[in-house]
Amino acid sequence: LLLTEEANAFLHFGCQAEAGSEWECPEEPIPGTVAFGDGKATRAQFAGQVRTTLQFKSKTCPGAIAFVLYVQGAGWEQWLKGSNGADFGIGLKAGGGATKSSEPGAEVAKNFVDAE
């Protein structure tokens, strides 16, 4: 996907007790994010369309996050998801790690890190 300069890219995510569970907003607000209107998802805008950071305190860190990418331009929008329309997922702490349904997210995370 080639983005025009005016396009805005967002990480649209939900916190999960463990991979595959229901999406929830973070227990505590995360700087640079806004709650989405459904009460379950939160959004973080990518700076320069390429980077965003989520920081959780250890006591409120979810077991995993599930996410999709949302891109919005002048008069258009696009949702970017994994294979078969699945959410991406990343395990964040012991006990909440990736399951088979979220393995594509682990590969995405690795690609993000390798690109640095």
UniProtKB/TrEMBL annotation:
<dbReference type="Pfam" id="PF23166">
    <property type="entry name" value="Ig_N_CWD1"/>
</dbReference>
<feature type="domain" description="Alpha-glucan water dikinase-like N-terminal Ig-like">
    <location>
        <begin position="7"/>
        <end position="90"/>
    </location>
</feature>
<protein>
    <recommendedName>
        <fullName>Alpha-glucan water dikinase-like N-terminal Ig-like domain-containing protein</fullName>
    </recommendedName>
</protein>
<dbReference type="InterPro" id="IPR056301">
    <property type="entry name" value="GWD-like_N_Ig"/>
</dbReference>
<keyword id="KW-0479">Metal-binding</keyword>
<keyword id="KW-0119">Carbohydrate metabolism</keyword>
<dbReference type="GO" id="GO:0046872">
    <property type="term" value="F:metal ion binding"/>
</dbReference>
